[in-house]
Amino acid sequence: MPAKIILSGATGFIAQHIVKELLAKNYTVVSTVRSIAKGDHLLQLFGSSPKLSYEIVEDVAKPGAFDQVLESNPDATIFIHTASPFHFKTDDVAKDLLTPAVEGTKNALSAIQKYGKNIKRVVITSSYAAVSTASEQNDPKRVFTEKDWNQVTWDEAVSNAFMGYRASKTFAERAAWDFIKENDSQFILTTINPSFVFGPQYADVKENLNTSSEVINAITKLNRDDKIPPFKGGWVDVRDVAKAHVAAFEKPEAEHQRLLMNTGLFTEQTIVDLVRAKFPQLDIPQGTPGSDVETLAGLAQIDNSKTKEILGWEFIGFEQSVSDSIQQILDARKSTANM
Ligand code: NDP
């Protein structure tokens, strides 16, 4: 019989794609969401599937946040933890980013340790932010792999929201690996470490999207004379990231691994050049076409060949990922305008 899986943060961009993957494979999914309204909406998005239910975990940072969920689902065998804040809108990094990321992870693991005696596999959505140190991003000789750790300090973490988010993922993932060592846990941990995640929403294309999707959305909203917001880094498609969360517990080769999910590098110009070639109806600024090549040559490289070998499929390419995102955004705007 397909396993019962607990999935935290199921309303999120990545998590909704994970729900889709899990239901397609006939798993039973107990999701955690922050309110009844959000839970009901989630059920509706998945056609009230009898395999999907929800429990309320209003704030993952609260002590004992996951105890009741684990206590009432003793037959669950897999736990996937995605819930964590991903935004830069805070002046209090410790309270709004570091605490929920780290305490949320520890609370999930403590509840599993106490009540989840049948949980065999735990998958945590960490990040490429936990792999790469910010000050090394502009060193083209640096190659980051699954073995690397962000060396961010607490003082750097609380200096601004960008560093705070990167540190929140680093400290939370470290806390997870430390937890299983210190508690001699019965379950096996795998982390998923994605770079910037692009690709379409599962549903609900709102005016403003989740942090990583908003990078693309913001570019589609530009007028010809606007300044293009600068971005650079690695990217991967959400559908590959969702599939990796499932492979993480299905594949024995993924046991105890950090799966570094990255397909390529991009700058804002890479997106702009694609938009102008494929969506000429959007009158966005042109920037300096092709100038991303030089910027990308100055960036640290990412070698995730180990992860790709474990997963064994070809990741979705940039053109498809970004085009699918933009087409979905344009379709949603058209249907709102027609309402
Ligand atoms: P979303 O913002 O779409 O999802 C975040 C989820 O976490 C939401 O369900 C949110 O609930 C929930 N959440 C946040 N804070 C709390 C809290 N204190 N208590 C309970 N639930 C909480 O982001 P993504 O889907 O992009 O991110 C999901 C995970 O993937 C995160 O761990 C993120 O760090 C990681 N990640 C994302 C990347 C990306 O580029 N998107 C890259 C690398 C890692 P609600 O919406 O109700 O607030």
From TrEMBL:
The keyword Transit peptide does not apply. It comes from the Eukaryota. CDD domains: AR_SDR_e. Keywords: Oxidoreductase. Residues 5-257 form the NAD-dependent epimerase/dehydratase domain. The keyword Oxidoreductase applies. PANTHER family: NAD DEPENDENT EPIMERASE/DEHYDRATASE, STEROL-4-ALPHA-CARBOXYLATE 3-DEHYDROGENASE, DECARBOXYLATING. Belongs to the NAD(P)-dependent epimerase/dehydratase family. Dihydroflavonol-4-reductase subfamily. This is NAD-dependent epimerase/dehydratase domain-containing protein.
